[in-house]
Every structure is written in C-alpha cells, then in structure tokens.
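Below is a filled-in request sheet from our internal design queue. Each sheet records the structural input a requester submitted and the sequence that came back. We keep these sheets so that new team members can see what a complete request looks like end to end.

REQUESTER: design group, bay 2
PRIORITY: normal
MODE: inverse folding
CHAIN LENGTH: 195
BACKBONE (tokenized):
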C-alpha cells in the first residue's frame, strides 16, 4: 500500500513540476510588449456604444433654443430666427432651414419627448386641455394662410365655447303608399282647378 502511495505522490509532484516549467516558459517566450498591451487593454475604457446605427449626439445650443421655441408655441420660422439671430436669410430660406432642422433626428426626438410629456399633463387636467385647444385654434386662426383655415378655426372655437349649437334634424317617418296616393290626388285636383 505504501508503494502505491509513494508512486502516486511521485506522479503528482512530477505533474506539478511540469506545469510550473511550462508556465515559466510561456512568460519567457512572450515579449514584454505583449504584456504591456494586455495591461493597457485591460485598463482602458469600453468603446462608446451606438444605439442602432446612429451615434447618440447632444443638441447644440442653437438647436436647444430652436426646440424651446417650438415647445413654447412659436412658428418654425420664428423659432429658427430666435435660435440663430445672426442668420439674415429671407423668409423662404429661413422656412427651408427650419423645416430641415425639424427633420434632424435629435431635434425630432426631443420634440417628440416634450410633446409626450405635454399630452400626459393635459390629459390630467381637463381645463388645461380646453385652454390648450382654444389657444391652438386662436394661433391657427391668426396664422392661417387661407380663409377656409381661418374660418374653420373660428367655427371650432365658437362651437367649443357654446356660441352656437349644431342643429338636430328631426327625421319624420316615411309616408305609406296610401298616404302618397291621397297627397298626389289632392295636388292633381289643385292643378286641374288652376288650369
């Protein structure tokens, strides 16, 4: 029994000695530059993540002012002029630039977030919702480019505050065939008398 134990101990010590020798040879074979590179890679920050295929970007100061103007209720053109005061373009160029800025992904996302918050807050307070709708209709009435747009906004404002009510039509039952024959006979008699 002791011979077997001695033999197993000898095998274990030989294996551990071989493992130590092989591990030392691994470090000797690798240049010091590889170890430095591994240490640098381990200590470095993770790369910036992309969401989808677009890198997440922050709004510039001017874009932020533009978004704030739109949220406050300014027109796109006026919000663009407030955000970029040094731009002296004509109205058409300003409108085109504002429309292009509205399509910018970061600006669009910020406006959608703000609109979602506004809608949640308005749904909580019905009086605030009524005021919001009336203000929006008033702004549409003032800034509408066609007469039909202005009239429709005024019509909706009048209905909302109860200036006039939609008339309700009373539907009479359809006359029967006998009733129609009597009415037609009476009209024919009147026609013959006049002729």
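RETURNED SEQUENCE:
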């Amino acid at each position: 029994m002791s011979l077997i134990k001695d033999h197993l101990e000898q095998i274990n010590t030989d294996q551990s000695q071989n493992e130590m020798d092989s591990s030392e040879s691994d470090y000797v074979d690798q240049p010091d530059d590889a170890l430095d590179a591994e240490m640098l890679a381990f200590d470095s920050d993770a790369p910036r993540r992309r969401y989808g295929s677009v890198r997440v970007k922050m709004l510039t100061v001017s874009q932020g002012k533009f978004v704030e103007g739109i949220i406050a209720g300014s027109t796109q053109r006026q919000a663009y002029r407030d955000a970029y005061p040094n731009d002296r373009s004509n109205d058409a160029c300003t409108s085109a630039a504002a429309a292009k800025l509205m399509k910018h992904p970061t600006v669009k996302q910020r406006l959608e977030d703000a609109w979602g918050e506004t809608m949640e807050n308005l749904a909580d307070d019905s009086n605030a919702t009524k005021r919001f709708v009336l203000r929006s209709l008033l702004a549409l009435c003032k800034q509408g480019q066609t007469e039909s747009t202005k009239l429709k906004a005024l019509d909706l404002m009048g209905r909302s505050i109860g200036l006039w009510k939609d008339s309700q039509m009373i539907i009479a039952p359809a006359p029967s065939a006998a009733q129609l024959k009597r009415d037609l006979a009476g009209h024919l008699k009147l026609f013959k008398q006049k002729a």
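SHEET NOTES:
- The radius of gyration is 41 Å.
- The first helix runs from residue 2 to 29.
FILED BY: M.R.
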